[in-house]
Amino acid sequence: MExxxxxxxxxxxxxxxxxxxxxxxxxxxQVAISDTEGLNFEQAMDYGRTIGYKNLSSMTFYxxxxxxxxxxxxxxxxxxxxxxxxxxxxxxHVDSWVDIEGGFGTFFTYSxxxxxxxxxxxxxxxxxTQKISANGTFLGTHILTPSEGxxxxxNAYNFPVWGMLEKLSTSLLAGVPSIVKPSPFGSYxxxxxxxxxxxxxxxxxxxxxxxxxxxxxxxxxxxxGDSVLFTGSANTGRKLKSLPSIAGNAVRxxxxxxxxxxxILGLDAKPGTPEFDLFIKEVRNEMTTKAxxxxxxxxxxxxxxNLVGDVQNALxxxxxxxxxxxxxxxxxxxxxxxxxxxxxEVVRKVNLLKAETELVYDGQHELVDANYEKGAFMSPxxxxxxxxxxxxxxxxxxxxxxxxTLMPYKEAEEAAALAKKGKxxxxxSIVSYDDQFVAETSWKMASQHGRIFVLxxxxxxxxxxxxxxxxxxxxxxxxxxxxxxxxGGLSGLHFFLQKTAIQGSPDTxxxxxxxxxxxxxxxxxxxxxxxxxxxxxxxGDSLETAGRTVTEADIVNFSNVSWDHFxxxxxxxxxTGTIFDKTVAHGYFILSAAAxxxxxxxxxxxxxxxxxxxxxxxxxxxxxxxxxxxLTAKEKxxxxxxxxxxxSGVVKWLVEVxxxxxxxxxxxxxxxxxxxxSPFIELNVKxxxxxxxxxxxxxxxxxxxxxxxxxxxxxxxxxxVSLGEPEADQCFTxxxxxxxxxxxxxxxxxxxxxxxxxxxxxxGSLSALKHKNLDIAKQxxxxxxxxxSIYYKENPEAEHMNYVFGNLNKEMWELMHRKHFTHHFxxxxxx
Length: 831
Description:
By secondary structure, this protein is an alpha/beta fold. The longest helix is centred in the N-terminal third of the chain and has 25 residues, at about 95-115.
């Protein structure tokens, strides 16, 4: 039987012991062997701390976000084989989707967060700058940098893919290398996904390592700067946390443990209401999804005492309709537990529950295409605890399978008290249409819950469900649930980052943070900042505007245009007892007038106003006052764009408005969308003429079969097609891919060298030349480019077919020509 290899210190290594046999949870057949015997864990830890840390921490947050996206796309293309392995763990197709594509989705989510909200630097400035001296020459702020160590990530058996990717999403984005230690059971699925992550070549060397099997003494080697993330039983987690190597070295430890999650049916949710039906459906799903092997599954069903019988009957009928069996069968709605060992453990816990509570439902025992002897199958089991404040077994024992306990309550106070008897849970849910009941219950139970999920008829269609942790929200819980916090959007990165206070002068903090700090030196130049591409803008680039004297007419006109007739702007007789001496200019007029002073009227790289932050007005401006504006580039944010958007970044500009006495009257931060410099040539006829003048008959191509004249005639023909001379009679790209092809025109990705044009001969032979010589061909190309520029000025709405990109308008043809010309000019070393 094949052994699963471990990936440590940059190579695949097989253990040298007998290992742990891994079985198909459905058929009982052996699948693989996991073995870590003989591995040098100390070497693996050092390798991650040195090679892995150096490579990951030197990347920017933005680049690490792009890395996550590339990995997720690579894995998504190979998902079919993961599903085939997932069925062997007892998971149905839906179970597998949650695990496999849910894991990929976490990578996609964190990639998006990074590209929208994190800087293109290896550090992250956290929070505002604090002015800690009277004159502003001494400032303070905080920066976050990757914790200098390695993260050991110990995952549970229930989610072999999501469990790994959920932790890696934050550690990799934070810049911290990791060793992944999945549970042996189901680790053959983790191993397959991990192999592809390494095979992709996207992750830098040392970023991730994999240990499939027993962890051995790996935790003996953790040290200051390292972190341990554990998902599993609270008992095991507490033992690990108290290890001398962890407790004695200030090693960061995050635990996400089992918990007795509850769901509360509201007093209003009687049979016949949408909420009653939603409750039954939600409880059934949480009992049967992954055969109840979810840390977020509903273990305690808390219902009004007068509805216990109704809930028991409705839930029993719903569970009767849940077909159990081989996950490969289309009829199956619930698969098996992950193995016989886990089955025996659940049976042990079920027997403990039987000692104090009544088993009122034991499920349908027929299996589809499977049997109980070979597979680890268990029917859903529903208990009734008729005295939940006296019988504590339901609040102490978790059977990690399709097992839950029904219990009554009288009013909201009791419902919240029962919820809290779990002594700390990952999630609790409330199903009710009574907002007052929901509010009263939720805030009382919140102290013992990491997440509260409220379900009713209004959100049911879009709800993600009680048991689904989301990357943008915190996953974890207090007390029994471990006290840990994972994900939660960008908050999830903080566990892996060191927060450091930075103090210094404005110039020093500007240099360190790469963000302009008020009071730092400004950089003035003749070129208007709005005429610079994103790459050209430097933090500190500044503009001092001319002055503008505010008039009474300005104030009156702005009142009329804006309809803002607040008395301080319009009624001089009402100012007694106010802070104003006379009618005052509107704050938003000052901001508008400032924009009028600092914008550049000439078309340039600035695409649009993207937003406004932190606008404050400090002094009133009256008629007769003269305002001047200082505009300074404060921060640059790289930005990923999709679809038909121009590649761009966001620049934050500090706007300081002063009056004639040099008093600051307004400070704001405006955001502009600034185009990135295109790598493709401009469609400037003079420039094109100069380029093609460098082409001779003797010029050799860097690739392809084209001669110089063939290339120029090919470009000339393309220009004519863009004029509809002749109109292309077809597009060779299928409708399914056409939008993707057209979107690609807007990116800065160059055309591939090995692209075989579909309109060319199948044998790759070139068409006959049309012109007598190269000079005539070049002149024809230039003449037609002159016609192109005139044609689309006269016909701005015109559209013509392209053989590859379909129907293109003026903008798209220009983008296409720029890419296409650049491609062929580079082919012949002309640019």
